[in-house]
Each structure stands twice: as C-alpha cells, then as structure tokens.
Specification:
By secondary structure, this protein is an alpha/beta fold. The protein has helices at 11-16, 20-31, 33-70, 76-124, 127-130, 133-148, 150-176, 178-223, 226-234, 238-290, 296-338, 400-407, 430-435, 451-456, 466-476, 478-483, 505-519, 535-548, 561-564, 584-590, 593-603; strands at 360-367, 377-384, 389-393, 415-420, 423-424, 437-440, 523-527, 553-557, 569-574, 577-582. The radius of gyration is 35 Å and the shape is elongated. Bound molecules: adenosine-5'-triphosphate (ATP) and magnesium ion.
Length: 606
C-alpha cells in the first residue's frame, strides 16, 4: 500500500518525520509553559512509583519469610513497610488523576493555540494559494492536525514516563540477572517493527484519502446548505448527491476496515511473541528461586518487574511508533506553517502616498492565472488619474475583475508593472496600501453577523462607532434596509444563526456599498455593485456616488449603460487590452465597440 504513486516511502520517511516533533513541542510549550512543567514533574514522579512499589513488596515478603523461618515475633518494621506501600499506592492513584487533568488542560490550550495560528497563517497567504487544490488539501490536513494530534502530546508525556519506569525496572532486573533483560528486549522488538509499519500504512492511506474526504466534506456542506437548498429541491438532486456521498464514503470505510483487519491479525501475533518472552523469563526466575539462588521476595520482585518492564517496553515502542506516526501526520501542519505568501511587503517598503498625486498606471501589463496558460490581460496600458471616475466595461470574462485584483495587488502581473504615483506597487507596504483602497467585489461577502458588523467590516476599527456606521449606511441607501429590520443595526443577518433575517440581493448590495463609504479611502472600486438594484435605487446610488466621490479616484464596473454614462471616462476592455476610451458622447460618436454595445442595450428598451 505504501507503494501508491502519491506517497512512496519507507523507513527513512518514518523516522525523518520525527524532525517535526521539535516544531510541535514548541507549539506545545507556547500554549502553556506552566502546565508543561507541572505535567513533566508529575510524570517523572509517577514513573518512579511502580518500581518503588515493587521494591517495597519485595521487602515485605522477605520480612514475612524471615519471620516465618526464624520463628520470631512480628516486627513493627513489617507494618511500617505495609504503610509505606499503602502510601505509594494512594499517591500513584492521585497522581494518575492529576496527570489526566493536566493533559486535558494542555490539550485545550494546544488546540486553541494551534487553531488560532492556522487561522492567522491561512489569512496571511495569497489569493494565489487559494486557487491551488493542493493547497486546500494541505490546509484541510493542517486543520485536522491542529486539533487531532493532541494524542501525540499525551504520547510524548507517556513516553517519558514509560522510559523512566522501564529504565528503573531494568536496573532492578539487571541487579539479579542481565540475561533476563536481554530476553525481554529481544521479545519486544517484533511488536515495535509491526507497530511502526502499520502506523506508516495508516498515514499513506489517509494521505491518499484526503481528496476524497474533501469531496465528502463538500457534499456534506452542499447537502445542508441554505444556498443550495432551492436548487437541490427543484432540480431533484437529493438522490444524486446522496448516492455520490455514499459511494465515496463506502470507499473510505472499506479501506479503513481493510487496514484495521490486517492490523488485528499481525498485532495479535506480534504481541504473542512478546508474551512468550515474558514467560521464558518468568520460568528462568522460578528456576533460580527453586534452586535457592533468589529469595521469595526477589522472585516476586522479578515477576512484577519483568511483567511491568515487558509491558512498559512494549508500550514504549508502541508509543514511540505512535509518535512517529503522529509526527508523520504533522508533516502537513509544519509544511503549511512553512508556506510563505509570494505577495508580501518588501523590507523597508514605502508608505502609500497621501494624497495620491499622479494616480495609477498599468504599464504593459500581462497576466495569466496560476496553472493556466491563457493570457487574460495582454500588454495592457491604462491610467487612472486622481479625481477621475472611470467606468470599466467589457463582456463577461474579458478580465475586468482581474484588473481590479491587480490594481489592489491581490496578484502581481506576470509582465509589466502596475504603478502608483510612478512607483511599482511592489515597492509599497501592503497593509498601508490596502488602507487607501476601498473595494466592493462582485462576489462581496455576506457575513452572517449583525447589520452593524456587516457594514463595519469596511473599517473594522470603527465597529463601535454607530453614528459613523449610520452615516455610511445613509450614503449607500442601506439606511432604509436597516430601518425595516426588527432589531435595526443589531439585527443578525443571514439564516445561519438564531433570529437571523435574510436580505434580498439588492439589499445586500446596499449594505456592502456602505462598507465602501465607511472605508473613506482615496481610491474607491466598485465591481458591479449595483447589478441587483432596481432602476430607481441604482439611479440614486449613482447620483450619490458621483457626489460623494468628487475629488477621489473611482473605478466602477457595470454592465448597465445608464450607470456607465455617468463616468468621466469609459474604458472598454477587449481581448486583454483597452479597445476604446473616452466619455459617453465621444465613444458613441466614434461608432465603435462601445456604440455597438450601447445600441444593443438601448434597442431592447424601445
Ligand atoms: N481565479 C482564477 N483562476 C483562473 N482563471 C480565472 C480566475 N478568475 C478568473 N479567471 C478567468 O479569467 C478571465 C477573466 O475573468 P474576470 O473575472 O476578470 O472577468 P470579468 O471581465 O470580470 O467578467 P464578468 O463580467 O463576468 O465579471 C475569465 O475568462 C476567467 O475564466
Ligand atoms: Mg467580473
């Protein structure tokens, strides 16, 4: 199974995965240093308790034997020993609880810490990363690993405890006979080999299954989503989706079971070998006692120590292979954290100009999306001057939204430059640049949060500034939308949460537009923000837009010529370049592409 094309590997990989352990230990440490220290101390003490118990038992039995053979009265020492054993047993029980508690505490802290880190890191990566399915697989695995690998931390704690116990017990055994120890070790090795082997197969299997699991997740979400519900019902897609889900999930299940079955058979056999080792050692100890070499106390000690050491040794190995296994799973989490965004601020990057004096310039810009060979923009040249309101038009898929993504530096051009005040965008500090841009995308987000929060995302520092939020809402005509909501600005929007109210497409657009006004940036970009507005709303929105953006730079994309004609300049995009530009009158007089498109739309109104 490990010979699958996606994942070849052997022992080297198994152990090289252990290099993930330090990184994880760092996360563990970061999530709660105090808990880590307390946990370690408890485990060291807990590790020493079993050997101490066995030793006291030996002393008790030897004392009893001495009393019996010498016919002496019972010595107080005997009761003292029993008291000590009782004390140790109580301590062992209590300590076990304490360790469980500390583990749970650490688990909570770790999950929290790593989940937050995953969120932070995912947010820091480029849009580019999100277009790569391999990235999703990795993100998915990292997400699972962030919460699912607690087991490994507990395993490390257990390992420390087991190693100390095993060493201490081994020393006690060695004091009486080194051969016994050798026997034990040899008996346990096969179990270890088996454990690691299966751990590895398990990882290879999960690795292979990730794309399927991603599909399953998607189907599950689709099946339960409000957005999809309308179409699922009317198109009668229930059986289709369920069938697909069943097929995939059966496949995953069967693979899981097949591996588990193999593991049961092999594991049982390997454990039997370990048990045989134990009994051979036991027979040896009995023989030495019968021949008078070991005392009864020693026999008891050895019997206990051998049994414990053997099972501890076996557990140590299986814990070790658990750790190696878990560490292998962590490869993706570590790799995920090692991913670096390609769109980043340079060191000592420039601050965005305030005010912008010369505007934006696309100079010979070509662009293709990662993983595609088709040039969307091809040697594009175009200016956006301060104080200018430009309408960008073009047919579907011509690259209008792509221009917005380049202008806002969500992507870098493949060739050419995007300049702001004559300086390449790549020279500016990203966060500072973003602060000067307000953009509402075609596929703007509908946050399942309150109306106030939905607007405040435009400038999140102002989340508690209700008057400012109201002011922006008034500018975008979202005011009337909010007025109709039962709880006004505190109304939960969307249907996901209790008491949520959904809005119509146009109402959502008005809310989103308010974000742009709240942002109060030097550059305002609206990518078809009014497509769902009724004719009167759109007219009003753009009247206000014109007033509110005087002196600012504005770029808007629209398919409605009633809107487009309000622009200072209209830019027509075709075949990756600017085909025509000018104001409405100039372009209609030109009788080119614009005039044709305008005529087409006007004709349908006559
Ligand atoms: N993330 C992406 N990865 C690959 N190709 C993409 C991506 N986004 C868009 N494209 C492609 O780039 C081309 C331009 O897309 P873009 O979204 O810029 O068009 P548009 O002019 O905004 O169209 P519309 O009027 O439909 O909004 C399209 O042909 C599309 O297939
Ligand atoms: Mg678009």
């Amino acid at each position: 199974m490990s010979g699958e094309p996606e994942f070849r590997g052997g022992w080297r990989e198994r152990f090289s995965a252990l290099r993930n352990v330090p990184a994880v230990l760092r996360f563990v440490w970061e999530s709660g240093p105090t808990v880590v220290v307390l946990g370690l101390v408890s485990r060291v003490i807990a590790a020493l308790l079993p050997p101490a118990l066995f030793w006291v038992s030996k002393l008790i039995i030897d004392t009893i034997f001495h009393i019996l053979t010498t016919h002496q009265p019972i010595q107080p020492r005997l009761w003292w020993l029993v008291a000590v054993e009782f004390g140790l047993a109580v301590a062992a029980g209590a300590l076990g609880r304490v360790i469980d508690y500390l583990d749970a505490l650490l688990a909570g802290k770790y999950t929290h810490h790593v989940s937050v880190r995953v969120m932070e890191h995912a947010a820091s990566l480029d849009l580019m990363a999100y277009e790569d399915p391999a990235f999703y697989d990795r993100l998915e695995r990292a997400r699972v690993q962030a919460t699912d690998r607690l087991y490994m931390i507990q395993a490390i704690g257990r390992l420390i405890q087991q190693v100390i116990t095993t060493i201490t017990l081994s020393i006690s055994i060695m004091v009486f006979s080194p051969w016994l120890l050798l026997l034990l070790v040899v008996g346990v090795i096969p179990a270890f080999v088996g454990e690691t082997h299966f751990a590895f197969l398990g990882y290879a299997k999960n690795f292979r299954q990730t794309p399927i699991r991603r599909q399953l997740d998607y189907l599950r979400i689709l099946g339960g989503s409000k957005e999809a519900a309308k179409e699922l019902k009317l198109f009668g897609l229930k059986d289709f989706l369920t069938g697909r889900f069943k097929g995939l999930s059966t496949q995953v299940y069967e693979e899981d079971i097949a591996l588990a079955r193999r593991k049961v058979v092999a594991g049982g056999f390997l454990t039997a070998i370990g048990t045989a080792g134990y009994y051979t050692a036991y027979v040896f100890a009995v023989w030495r006692t019968v021949t008078g070499v070991f005392s009864f106390g020693t026999l008891t000690l050895l019997a206990n120590a051998i049994r414990e050491a053997s099972s501890n040794l076996q557990q140590t190995f299986s814990t070790l292979s658990t750790i190696a296994d878990q560490a292998l799973f962590l490869t993706d989490l570590i790799a995920f954290f090692e991913m670096r965004p390609t769109i980043q601020s340079k060191p000592n990057a420039l601050l965005a100009p305030r005010p912008i004096r010369r505007g934006f310039e696309f100079r010979n810009v070509s662009f293709r999306y990662p993983g595609s060979s088709r040039l969307i923009l091809n040697g594009l040249n175009f200016h956006l001057h301060p104080g200018e309101r430009i309408a960008l038009i073009g047919e579907n898929g011509e690259g209008k939204t792509t221009i917005v993504k380049l202008l806002t530096r969500l992507y870098d051009p493949v060739e050419g430059q995007v300049l702001l005040d004559g300086v390449d965008l790549r020279e500016y500090n990203l966060e500072d640049l973003y602060r000067e841009i307000g953009v509402i995308f075609q596929d703007f987000m509908r946050y399942e949060m309150t109306a106030r929060e939905n607007i405040a995302v435009g400038k999140i520092e102002q989340i508690d500034n209700l008057p400012l939020v109201e002011q922006s809402a008034q500018k975008s005509m979202a005011e009337d939308v909010v007025a109709k909501l039962p709880s006004g600005y505190e109304q939960m929007l969307g249907r996901r949460f209790d008491g949520g109210v959904d809005l119509s497409g146009g109402e959502w657009q008005k809310i989103a537009l308010a974000r742009a006004y709240l942002r109060d940036a030097q550059v305002l970009i609206l990518d078809e923000p009014t497509s769902a507005l009724d004719a009167r709303s759109e007219y009003e929105v753009f009247q206000r837009f014109a007033e509110l953006t005087t002196g600012k730079m504005a770029l808007f994309i629209s398919h409605r010529f009633s809107t487009v004609r309000m622009a200072d300049r209209i830019v027509v995009l075709e075949n990756g370049r600017i085909a025509e530009e000018g104001n409405h009158d100039a372009l209609t007089n030109l009788g080119g592409r614009y005039a044709e498109m305008f005529e087409l739309q006007a004709a349908s109104y006559r």
